[in-house]
Amino acid sequence: MKIVKIVLLFCLTVPLMAVEHNFTIENTNYTISKIPYAEEDRTLYNYNRLRLTDKIKEGNWFANIILDIENYYGEMYIEGFEYQFLRSIKADTPFDIETDAKNYGEGEVFGRLHRFSVGYTDEKHNVVFGLQKITMGVGRIWTPTDLFNPRNPLALEPDQIYGNVALSYTYALGELSQAMGVVAKREDNSYKYAGRIKGNVAIGDVAVDFFSSNDAQMIAYEIEGNLFDTGIEWRSEGGYNKDKLLDKDFYQTILGIDYGFVNGLTVMTEWLHSTKTYTADEILNFQKSSLGYNRHLSSDYVGASVYYDFNLLYSGALSVIYSPEDQSSFISPLIEYSISDDASVAIGAMLYTGNDQSEFGSVDNSFYLRLKATY
User: Fold this and answer.
1) Could you report the per-residue pLDDT of 296-307, keeping only the tens digit for each?
2) For residue 168, what are the CA distances in angstroms to 39, 43, 135, 148, 183?
3) Beta carbons of 11 and 23 less than 8 angstroms apart
4) Dist. CA 287–CA 86, nearest whole Å
5) What are the distances in angstroms from CA 279 to CA 74, 273, 285, 317, 359?
6) pLDDT at res. 16
7) Which of these, 357, 302, 311, lies nearest to 336 by C-alpha position?
8) How does pLDDT run across 219-277, given as a tens digit for each residue?
9) Could you give the angle at the alpha carbon of 207 between the alpha carbons of 205 and 210, nearest 5°?
10) Cα(79)–Cα(107) distance, rounded to whole angstroms?
11) What does the alpha-carbon distance between residue 60 and residue 77 come to, in Å, rounded to a whole number?
12) Model's pTM, two decimal places?
């Protein structure tokens, strides 16, 4: 793909320029074993992502470039429904950010332009243009106000999300207040727009958000603050959504709290509520729309996570999402060992409980080994 070649050439020539840059190479490798709900053979496959990152700075100007080379190895997996469905979900951008996949029998390899943006920043202004992540919302598990780069808490890597080809501008109204505007071009060459005004009041940081596109509209809020100086951080976000594709209007909100103990234990919990639900077919068939991650089978979900540093080398985390409606759940434990400052190894699982008719109960359990190194 021409754009990938141009960006790669740009990255390789940057060290020759009289600018400050930070070039890193990161390799993340997963070996994953999926155990079906039914009595069938397990699926074993390997996923590897080689990531090249360059952060460039010259005075008030900057550029961010991230290129990925992804490889899936495991014939049974790449021929299965899950892989084919995930590969069918493309970035909502006016040009293709991925190369064609090269199939070599047992696996597939392809390249991706993950981020490519340039910008300017000073005390009052921050302007960014290009393939970028638009940050909206305060949620840790769910971000219902983020219709640009929403997290998928059920994914292996919830924060590995597509960028948007956008122009974003943030103006500092004061030390603790700002206004932001965004316009992004979509795959169908239409545009989506967003705005946010954020300030600090007695209860904490408060923002009002606006979003509009050809398939959705939203007016929302964000609140984040400290609960009476107790050390407990609380947050909430949500708003009114108009789903133009499926002709539904609904309100969606989250409420969450965090607390970090002095012994290194951090606890977080979050509740998601929606006034409308969707069928499985509606969720799957309209996944690519602006509200793709705001459509849910149930009205309420409760999520929680615990993180703990056992010592300088070992850490552990446990995340849970529970559906009170059908009493099914998603459980994700993780144990990580730090080999060095730049390398780690971890073992984890993605477990699903409930009967075979519930939201999570019929999903395959997964166990994985992760190796990660940065150079």
Assistant:
1) 999 999 999 999
2) 50, 42, 10, 12, 7
3) yes
4) 11
5) 32, 16, 10, 32, 11
6) 46
7) 311
8) 999 999 998 878 899 999 999 999 999 999 999 999 999 999 988 899 999 999 999 99
9) 165
10) 9
11) 46
12) 0.90
